[in-house]
Specification:
The relative contact order is 0.13. The chain has a single domain (2-93, 103-229), classed as 3 helical TM bundles of succinate and fumarate reductases. α1 (2-40) crosses α3, α1 (2-40) packs across α9 (201-229) and α8 packs antiparallel against α9. It is globular. The chain contains nine helices and no strands. It has 232 residues and is an all-alpha fold. It binds protoporphyrin IX containing FE. Protoporphyrin IX containing FE binds next to α1, α3, α6, α8 and α9.
Length: 232
């Protein structure tokens, strides 16, 4: 009975972990796509950022869900890792992880921890100033002194972060490589935990996962390197 309870809550945790992962997978796709606009057109990037930053559904519904999803994912990840670690210690005194699991799947906690550190820097760079600007200082989206492009400040601020800052650019790029490693196992694993496991679908999910885990981080790398290199 006690075991069943424990199993039940482990399954619930895995399910919640996978659900938050799928949400984050969708978020990353849209986040990368919108930021990629900054490479091609300052005006379009500004317009879309302004829309995302002012549309009530994004601001007051999607953004709180996203922040909750990020926190839930990290907290559950640490709990799952701790549970796995303690049960391995008891059950398999001579457990050899490398024999039956990929490097990526065995090191999700470490690649995840690097992403968490990155998010600390990233929130300090973009999110906290944005929240302070809007909700503390009560200002709008326009550049106050001088209009460089469509008049919104988003493009200007993104450029400014990478202006001559090689350390920030490298920290971002290294984090995106870890993000790729995390997604390489995480994408497939999230679908499996949701029950999408069959002869027909598993190979497709594997291929999609590989493509996603390469293309999304690569897109982010292009954005960071582009804004650094074009301001040299
Ligand atoms: C070069 C790459 C990236 C750039 C230029 C970038 C840019 C931004 C900007 C400008 C914001 C503020 C949006 C706002 O609230 O107005 C933001 C927020 C955020 N970013 Fe990124 N980002 C990048 C990569 C990433 C990655 C790889 C992740 C996740 C691993 C991430 C996660 C987030 C989250 C969770 C938020 C807060 C939610 C939101 O406001 O949309 N970002 N990012």
């Amino acid at each position: 009975m006690a075991n069943q309870g424990l199993l039940g809550s482990t399954i619930a945790r895995k399910f919640a972990m996978a659900l938050s992962a799928l949400f984050l997978i969708v978020f990353l796709l849209q986040h990368m796509s919108i930021n990629m606009l900054s490479v091609f057109s300052a005006d379009t990037f500004n317009e879309v950022s302004h829309f995302m930053g002012t549309f009530w559904l994004v601001q007051y519904v999607m953004q709180p869900i996203l922040i909750f999803g990020v926190l839930l994912h990290f907290i559950l990840g640490f709990i799952l890792e701790y549970k796995n670690w303690s049960s391995r210690k008891v059950k398999y005194a001579n457990y050899k992880g490398s024999a039956n699991a990929s490097w990526m799947s065995r090191n999700m906690i470490y690649t995840g921890a690097v992403i968490l550190l990155f998010l600390g820097l990233h929130f300090y760079d973009f999110w906290i100033p944005e929240i302070a600007h809007k909700f503390v200082e009560g200002k709008d989206s326009f550049i106050e002194n001088g209009v460089a492009d469509s008049g919104y400040r988003f493009y200007h601020e993104l450029r400014h972060k990478f202006d001559g800052d090689i350390v920030r650019m490298i920290l971002y790029v290294v984090s995106f490589i870890f993000l790729g490693l995390h997604l390489n196992h995480g994408f497939e694993s999230a679908f499996q935990s949701m029950g999408a496991r069959s002869k027909k679908y598993t190979p497709i999910i594997k291929k999609l996962g590989t493509a996603y885990s390469i293309l999304i981080p690569l897109g982010f790398i292009v954005i960071a390197v582009y804004h650094y290199v074009t301001q040299l």
